[in-house]
């Protein structure tokens, strides 16, 4: 007797979520990501009971496989250090596993699983043939010399290379992993496998198979997405006060594009604190501090004495603004920050980081009619261009910056339109959280059904 068939979509979702919490205790970030997605699928589950019958949710919340491994390396003082490495291969229904690597001391299984789970739906939304995966290590790149970074990347790849491949699993960057780290890992992969296979990693340097516009893609894509959302609501970036948290790769290029479209970016941050510059953030200074010197954002005020530096980075959300683009990290906007933004009249929030708003914060934005662009839709430009990098590598060709940028614009517009249509179909017009989750889910679920119970 199949009791599932007697269940409503809501009951089925509650059952899967409570089993998930029981079977994965302590993985709170993973619980949060799963809850956000699954709860918005109720309407589609009621319409399509076959998803329940075929156990799609039970299968989709369980990674296809997880690797956890020791990463031993030697620091500049000759001391042996050991970190823990991860690769979660979550879902390969629509393509090889695809997703970044995060090097940050907070990395644990819960963080990698939440990121890998989000990646399944984000990658599906791009419309390109990429499955979902994620990896990383609890390694802290802060304060490490370039040689230490290289030795760590080589040690990490000495194990990871066994599990990846151009048609199997294609990692890229995330927090703490940029072009430099991808380059060191690619060199090690090539040495170990004796194959010149650039398509095995994305975000590479331009001299060895990297794509033009990959570096800019997540930030630019976020702004293209928010631009569409504003346009549908008869608004634009022009003349708006924008706050972008973070000052890494996503934040820098979100600031660049928002400024190009007429917005005035007045604040940005790093994990130590934030800078408020009422004259508008000088992006050349930020780029030099972060991309060249690899220093802290507090350096900014040394050159711009009219700007202010404050230590608590969460307080950045207390500054009045029209558009908020959280581009730092998960759960950086809690309910208090959301309330402060709403009180100060924020019109739109576009997520550049992965899961930067808590569930309560999202609810507050939606209830207060703030236009809200959820990460898996709005930050999909990075992985979208990664998939374009894979295409270029397969063709052994390179597109121009303009060609890639045009394709990126098309991808973001398409994600916006798909999400709006899905939200409408499910009786939640304008709710991009529900729309993006459903649009991303349906393609993966149908591919899983088509491939049988595997
Ligand atoms: N880490 C990025 C993300 O969260 C990019 C992943 C990729 O390019 O594979 O989507």
Automatic annotation (TrEMBL):
PANTHER family: NADP-SPECIFIC GLUTAMATE DEHYDROGENASE 1-RELATED. It comes from Clostridium punense. Residues 211-452 form the Glutamate/phenylalanine/leucine/valine/L-tryptophan dehydrogenase C-terminal domain. SMART domains: ELFV_dehydrog. Keywords: Oxidoreductase. CDD domains: NAD_bind_2_Glu_DH. InterPro entries: Aminoacid_DH-like_N_sf, Glu/Leu/Phe/Val/Trp_DH, Glu/Leu/Phe/Val/Trp_DH_C, Glu/Leu/Phe/Val/Trp_DH_dimer, Glu/Leu/Phe/Val_DH_AS, Glu_DH, Glu_Leu_Phe_Val_DH, NAD(P)-bd_dom_sf. This is Glutamate dehydrogenase.
């Amino acid at each position: 007797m199949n009791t599932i068939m007697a269940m409503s979509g809501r009951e089925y979702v509650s059952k899967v979520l409570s089993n998930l919490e029981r079977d994965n205790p302590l993985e709170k970030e993973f619980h949060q990501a799963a809850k956000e997605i699954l709860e918005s699928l109720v309407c589609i589950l009621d319409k399509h009971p076959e998803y329940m019958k075929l156990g799609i949710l039970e299968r989709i919340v369980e990674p296809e496989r997880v690797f956890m491994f020791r990463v031993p390396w030697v620091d500049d003082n000759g001391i042996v250090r050991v970190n823990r490495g991860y690769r979660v291969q979550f879902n390969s229904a629509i393509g090889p596993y695809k997703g970044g690597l995060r090097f940050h001391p907070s990395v644990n299984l819960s963080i990698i699983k939440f990121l890998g789970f989000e990646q399944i739906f984000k990658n599906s939304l791009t419309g390109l043939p990429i499955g979902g995966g994620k990896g990383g290590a609890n390694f802290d790149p802060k304060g490490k010399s370039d040689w230490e970074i290289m030795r760590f990347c080589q040690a990490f790849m000495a194990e990871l290379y066994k599990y990846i491949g151009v048609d199997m699993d294609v990692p890229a960057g995330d927090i703490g992993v940029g072009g430099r780290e991808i380059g060191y890992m690619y060199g090690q992969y090539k040495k170990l496998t004796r194959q010149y296979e650039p398509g095995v990693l994305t975000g590479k340097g331009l001299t060895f198979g990297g794509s033009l516009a990959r570096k800019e893609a997540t930030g630019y894509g976020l702004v293209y997405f928010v631009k569409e959302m504003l346009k549908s609501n008869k608004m634009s970036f022009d003349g708006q006060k924008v706050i972008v948290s973070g000052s890494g790769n996503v934040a820098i290029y979100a600031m660049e594009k928002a400024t190009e479209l007429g917005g005035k970016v007045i604040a940005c941050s790093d994990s130590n604190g934030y800078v408020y510059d009422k004259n508008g953030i000088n992006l050349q200074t930020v780029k030099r501090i972060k991309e060249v010197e690899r220093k802290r954002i507090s350096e900014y005020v040394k050159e711009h004495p009219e700007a202010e530096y404050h230590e608590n980075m969460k307080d950045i959300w207390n500054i009045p603004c029209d558009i908020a683009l959280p581009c730092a990290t998960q759960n950086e906007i809690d309910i208090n920050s959301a309330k402060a933004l709403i009180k100060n009249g924020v019109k739109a929030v576009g997520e550049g980081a992965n899961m930067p708003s808590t569930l309560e914060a999202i609810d507050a934005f939606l209830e207060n009619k703030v236009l809200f662009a959820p990460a898996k839709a709005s930050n999909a430009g990075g992985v979208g261009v990664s998939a374009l990098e894979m295409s270029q590598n397969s063709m052994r060709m390179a597109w121009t910056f303009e060609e890639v940028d045009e394709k990126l614009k098309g991808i973001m517009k398409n994600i916006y339109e798909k999400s709006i249509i899905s939200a409408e179909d499910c009786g939640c017009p304008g709710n991009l959280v529900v729309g993006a989750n459903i649009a991303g889910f349906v393609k993966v679920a149908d591919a899983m059904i088509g491939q049988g119970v595997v």
